[in-house]
Amino acid sequence: MNKKLLSIMLVIVTSISLIGVTAIVVVMKYMNTETASAAPSIDKVIEYSVDLPEITTNLSSDNIVRLTLKFETDSKKAREELQKREFQVKDIVISELSGVSADELEGKEGREEFKKLITAKVNELMKDGKVKQVYVTSFILQ
Question: TM spans, by residue (predicted)?
Fold first, then answer.
């Protein structure tokens, strides 16, 4: 009878230990994922960013817009590729601007939609990474 009780206790202690170790592993894995998905440091943002020189072009509403953009990429390779594709990115920006009116660019929502559109179009070009964010660093609408 004592051997049977000892065996049962050993199985219970082993099961509880396994459950505890599994819980610790899952929690540690979750904590590492949360840390990795946190926002990158400003140094990384700057390291992976590309400045697009000032662009001046006409809008479909006969207005003129002058803007400067900064593209944040997800890696050094993506940054290097984007620098090489600068002329293609300028073409995308100018083409998209020529199809919008001044009313569509006015206000926060209009600029946010424009930034999302540019991000999507540039990401279609990219082979070695992606553009994570587009920042408008200068904007004049006349």
Answer: 6-27
